[in-house]
Amino acid sequence: MKEIKDLRRFSREIRALTCEMFIKRKDGHIGGAFSIVEAIAAIFGKYKQKEDYFVLSKGHAGPSYYAALCLLGYIPKEHICTLNENGTILPSHPDRTRTPGVECTTGSLGQGISEACGMAYGLKIQGKKGNVYCIVGDGECNEGQVFEALQFAANKKLDNLIIIIDDNKKQVDGFTSDISCDFKFKNLLENFGFYTQEINGNNIEEVEKAIENCLKQKGQGNAIVMNTIKGCGIKYFEDLSSCHHMDFTEEQLAELQKFVDETRKELE
Ligand SMILES: Cc1ncc(C[n+]2csc(CCOP(=O)(O)OP(=O)(O)O)c2C)c(N)n1
Ligand SMILES: [Mg+2]
Fold first, then answer.
1. Domain 4-267 classified CATH 3.30.479.20?
2. What gap in Å lies between CA 71 and CA 13, rounded to an integer?
3. pTM above 0.85, yes or no
4. Nearest to 120 by CA among 106, 130, 112, 111
5. Residues 176-221: pLDDT tens digits?
6. What DSSP designation does 47 have?
7. Any residues with Cβ below 6 Å from ligand 1, and which?
8. For residue 70, what pLDDT is reported?
9. Where are the domains of the chain?
10. DSSP-assigned beta bridge partners for residue 10
């Protein structure tokens, strides 16, 4: 997909399909799955090449990742509504031994980014082409392991690594700023030695431009700090004080269904 309008359409399809998984399952991590949809759409719709890797370090956002993989033909459609069922190929958190298209097993916060750094370094020392895209949660940055990974990536100048921080300002049970310091991730990452950009991560043009800039620069690791909204795309969930993981009520299931119906109609 080369054009913004195609990426925008892709992001809407991703949200609708993710809703269908949640409706069938009646629960799910909607907040963090929806805040990264534009990033997922841009990476998978335009940038990710065969030699590249993708790591969803905030593995609980798996469903929107699966939706993109399904729309691109990696995951057969008949599996899409088996999210988190016994024996499914779609566990709630990504598992590379189970799901076609998934390249890294994640879910234990902090580990994915470390694996991504290892992959990027591995590509470098083997003289191979390829970039590694890694999405990390803002709450996930509570994990010390994230900072160990950043130090390594900065030291090795991993310019084939693009770390994307999903700064949706919330974690499980509240605002990230109430749990840890109110970091300015941009300053932090710049001080670590990364080529850092701060953008509106729910604006697909801004995501596209930021990735484009990363692909041009050499000699530094890349970081994109995305200001996003938890639950972005459905106002009902955006407005809740918390929509991290939800056991959906009948009213909420109806909101999800309404969104699916409206989106499908608009996309016809
Ligand atoms: C090591 C580890 N500790 C705890 C958890 C449980 N957990 C799942 S999501 C989450 C909050 C993550 O917050 P954030 O990264 O901000 O996620 P988002 O807002 O993107 O959903 C926690 C603590 C986990 N998956 N891994
Ligand atoms: Mg968060």
1. no
2. 8
3. yes
4. 130
5. 999 887 779 999 999 999 999 999 999 999 999 999 999 999 999 9
6. I
7. 31-32, 35, 58, 60, 107-110, 137-140, 166, 168, 170-172, 230, 244
8. 98
9. 4-267
10. none
